[in-house]
From TrEMBL:
Residues of the Helicase C-terminal domain: 234-383
Compositionally biased spans, kind Low complexity: 527-544, 559-576
Keywords from the UniProt entry: ATP-binding, Helicase, Hydrolase, Nucleotide-binding
Keyword Hydrolase: yes
Cellular component terms per the entry's GO annotation: cytosol
Native species: Acuticoccus mangrovi
One Pfam family matching this protein: ResIII
GO molecular function, one term: DNA binding
Domain of life (superkingdom): Bacteria
Coiled coil: none
Name of the featured protein: DEAD/DEAH box helicase
Region of interest (Disordered), ranges: 527-576
Length: 576
């Protein structure tokens, strides 16, 4: 029996919530290995059991994903009225109520498909931005047949190299992100395997490599990095650092480069194979099956294995392909996040400078078209080669102390490798303040400020949002006001903020340019307080409570005032 995880339930709720009050084509963003196929399958089952006359089309252009998505639905709902339309899979079940199709096979068959109510597009980031494409022409034809057609995109990376975010810009197919969960959240919850990285001594140079369409020119890139001495040095490092890793995946810059990489691995006594875009289907399936069984230690690829490739045992990724594409970088790293028996993490060896170019995969900020190519602000620890934020003063992995610099000192430090560190820093909380916050053109939220000595950290609790954000707000409130009704509005939450116990400590870590709050500790003796008298204060196990007049930054107070409830913490605790 397949069971949905909380964030998967929230993703489905977000789809329904979106169409209750909005029109458009929403995106659902779930990281690689986060179970997009199960979300789609459960959503389809729910729709058809509630509205049996609906016609649903699931489209992608990766053969493996067509079969995988179909199998997921049948596994969840064995009697599903589902079929496949794909030349590569040898099936043309055009009349199925739920049709899993390859865009290359079906893009000219809209009038044979006839009326369709829902189109789910998997790997939506692969849709070209141009309006004159197979996808766009096919969707235009379907919309002419049914003007009420709804299109929903699913992706782990909601951006493209040539056009930026998928829901922004003139002519964008998608209109909103209806739901998003980060890879960091799923790793923290134990749903994905963590990634670790070490800076490699071997560095592939892209000096002089031309750029076209925002990406390195493929021919020039292969010529620059496919050098015998560089390949030998890189594979020596892979063997030295990955000897205890069971399943290696190398992303290369060209067919010849991948061939040379595999040869270098075999010369060092390890089995290796290559896969390319033109590898015959039967041969490709045989190689991948052998790799998954552990009969082949390493796969070297070019142009494939970044989408629709499911090999959970992968525990070493060698990035030998420099890329300016944030999406490609994240997709490559994501091949190592699946859970597998005996696998604790996945080691990423970046010979291509991609981590420095893009930053940690859970904190990337894709450049807009036309923006510069500046690298993310990271530095290398000279003792253990971990990649860290430039503001870090002491390496959290080996304890190396960096000399002081003249730049402004950041308030917190933790590792920034291929993934932002899972080692947060705990801070004592002296005071907590609550205030309504109104984001321009957005729903209001409750801003919570934690004063920790001279430093303040903030979070925003979204009581009026839907889906996952609302679920997080419910859990946040219930931990602080056990047994009391959860507010449905920010105004209600603000009025009742005096009821909340406050944490004795918070755990923080960097997230891109910002600091996020990831955990809390509460004193076991704390309980919710009684309401204070107007203008006064009440002493209790949660500390004294007072109301102060403070200006609100960033917008107008939606509850009609300029007050903030401020709670000082008079007791520290050890409770988790």
């Amino acid at each position: 029996m397949l069971t949905l995880r909380p964030y998967q339930h929230a993703a489905i709720d977000a789809i329904y919530g979106y169409f209750e009050d909005r029109k458009g084509n929403p995106l659902i963003v779930i990281p690689t290995a986060g179970g997009k196929s199960l979300v789609m399958a459960s959503f389809i089952e729910g729709v058809l059991k509630a509205w049996p006359d609906q016609r649903i089309l699931v489209v992608t252009h990766v053969r493996e994903l067509i079969a995988q998505n179909h199998a997921e639905l049948i596994g969840l709902w064995p009697d599903a009225p589902a079929g496949i339309y794909s030349a590569g899979l040898g099936r043309r079940d055009l009349g199925a109520r739920v049709l899993f199709a390859g865009i290359q096979s079906i893009h000219k068959r809209a009038y044979d498909v006839q009326k369709c109510d829902l189109v789910l597009i998997d790997e939506a980031h692969l849709i070209p931005s141009s309006s004159n494409t197979m996808y766009r022409r096919f969707l235009d034809d379907l919309t002419r047949i049914n003007p009420k057609l709804k299109v929903i995109g699913f992706t782990a990376t909601p951006y493209r190299l040539d056009s930026g975010m998928l829901h922004e810009g003139k002519g964008a197919l998608f209109t909103d992100i209806a739901f998003e969960v980060s890879v960091r959240e799923l790793i923290d919850a134990g749903y994905l395997a963590p990634l670790t990285s070490k800076a490699a001594e071997t560095r592939l140079s892209v000096a002089g490599v031309a750029t076209r369409g925002g990406e390195f020119v493929a021919k020039d890139l292969q010529a620059a990095v496919d050098l015998p001495e560089m390949t030998d040095a890189a594979i020596d490092e892979v063997v030295a650092l990955g000897r205890d890793q069971r399943s290696w995946l190398a992303f290369c810059a060209g067919v010849e480069h991948a061939t040379h990489v595999a040869e270098a691995i075999r010369k060092r006594g390890f089995s290796a194979a290559t896969i390319f875009g033109d590898t015959p289907k039967a041969e490709r399936d045989r190689i991948i099956a052998s790799f998954k069984r552990g009969e082949i230690r390493a796969l070297a690829s070019m142009g494939v294995l970044t989408t629709g490739f499911n090999a959970p045992a992968v525990d070493l990724i060698a990035m030998l392909r420099p890329t300016k594409s944030t999406g490609l970088y994240v997709q490559m790293a994501g091949r190592g996040t699946r859970l597998a028996p005996g696998k604790s993490d996945c080691l990423v060896l970046d010979f291509a400078g991609n981590v420095a170019r893009h930053g940690p995969i859970d904190a990337v900020k894709p450049k807009r078209p036309g923006e510069g190519d500046g690298d993310a602000p990271v530095k290398e620890c000279p003792d253990c080669q971990s990649l860290l934020p430039t503001a870090v003063r002491v390496c959290p992995d080996c304890g190396h102390a960096f000399p002081p610099t003249k730049v402004e000192i950041e308030t917190q430090a933790s590792t920034l490798e291929i993934l932002t560190s899972g080692k947060p820093q705990w801070l004592e909380v002296d005071r907590v303040s609550y205030r309504p916050h109104q984001k321009p053109n957005g729903l209001p939220s409750l801003r919570v400020d934690y004063q920790c000595g001279m430093i303040r950290h903030s979070e925003w609790v979204c009581f009026e949002h839907t889906g996952y954000a609302r679920q997080k707000a419910i859990a946040w409130w219930q931990r602080r006001a056990s047994g009391q009704q959860v507010p449905t509005s920010v105004a209600d939450a603000f009025e009742r903020a005096w009821q909340l116990i406050v944490p004795s400590e918070i755990a923080v870590r960097p997230k891109g340019r910002f600091i996020e709050i990831v955990r809390y500790r509460f004193n076991r003796c704390q309980s919710t307080s009684s309401a204070p008298s107007a203008g006064g204060s009440r002493a209790g196990s949660a500390g004294s409570i007072r109301t102060t007049a403070l200006p609100i930054r960033g917008g107008t107070n939606p509850v009609g005032g300029s007050a903030a409830v401020s709670v000082s913490n008079s007791s520290k605790g050890e409770a988790a």
